[in-house]
C-alpha cells in the first residue's frame, strides 16, 4: 500500500499555526496527497481544495469566493501572473480565522513576479521523493533495490513495474515540458528543451559541459544554461558546485548535475551516486526549511581529476563528505588525499554491499543504508 504519512506532516501542522505554508516539489511527488491529508475529506472534490488548473476553482479564486473552512488548500496558483498579490489579499483579510496551504510543481520562492509581496507571511517547504529512511520509518516493504531501480516517486515506486515506470517517465516529462514550463516561461523550442531533458540522464555524475550540450542541440551555450535553470525551477534537476580549499587546487566553476528522479539513469554507478546525492539534498533542504540553517551540497575535485562525490556544508562549515562506490571496495585514495588537505571532519564511503569498517581515522566504509541510520537522514 502507498504511504500517506510523509515526513513533512508534523512540520506543516506546526507552521500553519503561525503563517501560510508554501509547499514546493516536483510534479507527482505527492504534494497534493499530502495537502489533502490535512482536510476532513481527503479527495480532490473537497470544496476546501482549490486547483488553478480547474476552471471552477480558477473562477472562485479570481472572484475571491473562498470557503469559510479553517484550512484552505490552493494548488498550482503560481501559474497566475498576479498570484502573489491574490494570495496576499486572502491572507491579510482572513489569517485570523483561516489557514492557507499553497502548493505547486515549481519553485514558488523563485516565481516572484515583480517582488516578494508576501515576505514574512509564509514558510517555504520542499517535498522530496521517498528516501530509504522515510520508507523505513513507515515500515514499508520496499527494498533498497526497488528504490534504486524505480526511484522515490510514489506511483512507479509502489507499482514496481518496469512497464509502468517507462510509461510514467514519458508522461511526466511531456507534461513537465508542455504543461508546467509552458505556463511559466516564454520558450519557443519546446521540442529542443525536451530533447535536452532526455539527454541529461547520461550526464549525471560527470562534470556538466554546457558547450557540449549546445553543440549537440545546435543552440547557443547561453540558451542551454537558461534551459537548465528552468528545469531546476520545476524540480527536474539540480546542480552541485565544487568545494574549495587553500591546500588543494580545486576546480572553481565546473558543476555536476543530478536528477530528482534517478530511475531514468541507466548506468548503475551514476544511478547510485544520484540516489545518494538526492538523499543528502533532502537532508540539506529539511534542515534549511525547518531550522533555518544555511545548507549546501557540494563536491570535491582538483585540477588533477581527484574527486569525492559529495560534501555537506552547514553554515559555511563542512560536516562530512561522501564517496559512492557500488561495490564494497577498499577506501578510495582520493579520500585519504583530501582528508589531509581539507578541514572536512569526517569521510564516508558508501556502497551497496555489507562491509562496515573504519579504514582510517575519521574515514569509514559502510553500506548506504547504515549511513542513513547514522546521520538520521529524513
Helical/strand content category: alpha/beta
Low-confidence stretches: none
Number of domains: 2
Mean pLDDT: 94
The largest beta-sheet arranges its strands as: 7-6-8-9-10-11-13-12
Strand content: 15-25%
Helix fraction by DSSP (H/I, runs of at least 4): 25-40%
User: The biggest beta sheet, please?
Assistant: 8 strands, mixed
State Rg: 21 Å
Please trace the helix and strand order, writing H or E for each element: HEHEHEHEEHHHHHHHEEHEEEHEEEH
The number of distinct β-strands equals: 13
| Termini gap | 20 Å
The general outline is: globular
Number of helices: 14
Please explain how this structure is put together.
With 378 residues, the chain is of the alpha/beta class. The protein has two domains: 118 residues, P-loop containing nucleotide triphosphate hydrolases (Rossmann fold, 3-Layer(aba) Sandwich); 244 residues, no CATH class. An eight-stranded mixed sheet has the order 7-6-8-9-10-11-13-12, sandwiched between helices. A hairpin with a 5-residue loop joins strand 8 and strand 9. Helix 8 packs across helix 9. The radius of gyration is 21 Å and the shape is globular. It starts with 8 loop residues before the first helix and ends with a helix. 40% of the residues are buried. The mean pLDDT is 94.
Amino acid at each position: 500500500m502507498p504511504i500517506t504519512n510523509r515526513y513533512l506532516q508534523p512540520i506543516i501542522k506546526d507552521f500553519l499555526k503561525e503563517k501560510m505554508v508554501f509547499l514546493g516539489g516536483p510534479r507527482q511527488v505527492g504534494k497534493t496527497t499530502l495537502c489533502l491529508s490535512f482536510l476532513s475529506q481527503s479527495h480532490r472534490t473537497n470544496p476546501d481544495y482549490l486547483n488553478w488548473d480547474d476552471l471552477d476553482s480558477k473562477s472562485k479564486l479570481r472572484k475571491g469566493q473562498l470557503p469559510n473552512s479553517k484550512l484552505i488548500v490552493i494548488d498550482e496558483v503560481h501559474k497566475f501572473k498576479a498570484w502573489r498579490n491574490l494570495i496576499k489579499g486572502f491572507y491579510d483579510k482572513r489569517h485570523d480565522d483561516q489557514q492557507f496551504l499553497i502548493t505547486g510543481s515549481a519553485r514558488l520562492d523563485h516565481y516572484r513576479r515583480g517582488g516578494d509581496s508576501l515576505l514574512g507571511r509564509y514558510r517555504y517547504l520542499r517535498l522530496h521523493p521517498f528516501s530509504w529512511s522515510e520508507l523505513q520509518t513507515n515500515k514499508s516493504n520496499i527494498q533498497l533495490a526497488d528504490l534504486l531501480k524505480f526511484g522515490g516517486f510514489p506511483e512507479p515506486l509502489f507499482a514496481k513495474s518496469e512497464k509502468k515506470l517507462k510509461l510514467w517517465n514519458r508522461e511526466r516529462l511531456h507534461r513537465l515540458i508542455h504543461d508546467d514550463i509552458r505556463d511559466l516561461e516564454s520558450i519557443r523550442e519546446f521540442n529542443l528543451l525536451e530533447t535536452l531533458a532526455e539527454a541529461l540522464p547520461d550526464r549525471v555524475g560527470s562534470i556538466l559541459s554546457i558547450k557540449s550540450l549546445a553543440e549537440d542541440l545546435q543552440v547557443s551555450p547561453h540558451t542551454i544554461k537558461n534551459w537548465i535553470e528552468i528545469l531546476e525551477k520545476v524540480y527536474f534537476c539540480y546542480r552541485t558546485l565544487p568545494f574549495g580549499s587553500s591546500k588543494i587546487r580545486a576546480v572553481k566553476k565546473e558543476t555536476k548535475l543530478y536528477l530528482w528522479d534517478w530511475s531514468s539513469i541507466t548506468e548503475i554507478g551514476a544511478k547510485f551516486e544520484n540516489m545518494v546525492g538526492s538523499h543528502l539534498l533532502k537532508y540539506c533542504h529539511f534542515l534549511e526549511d525547518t531550522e533555518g540553517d544555511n545548507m549546501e551540497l557540494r563536491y570535491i575535485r582538483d585540477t588533477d581529476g581527484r574527486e569525492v562525490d559529495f560534501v555537506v556544508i552547514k553554515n559555511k562549515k563542512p560536516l562530512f563528505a561522501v564517496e559512492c562506490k557500488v561495490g564494497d571496495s577498499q577506501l578510495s585514495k582520493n579520500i585519504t588525499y583530501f582528508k589531509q588537505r581539507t578541514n572536512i571532519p569526517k569521510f564516508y564511503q558508501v556502497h551497496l554491499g555489507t562491509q562496515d569498517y573504519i579504514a582510517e581515522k575519521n574515514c569509514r566504509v559502510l553500506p548506504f543504508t547504515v549511513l542513513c541510520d547514522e546521520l538520521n537522514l529524513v
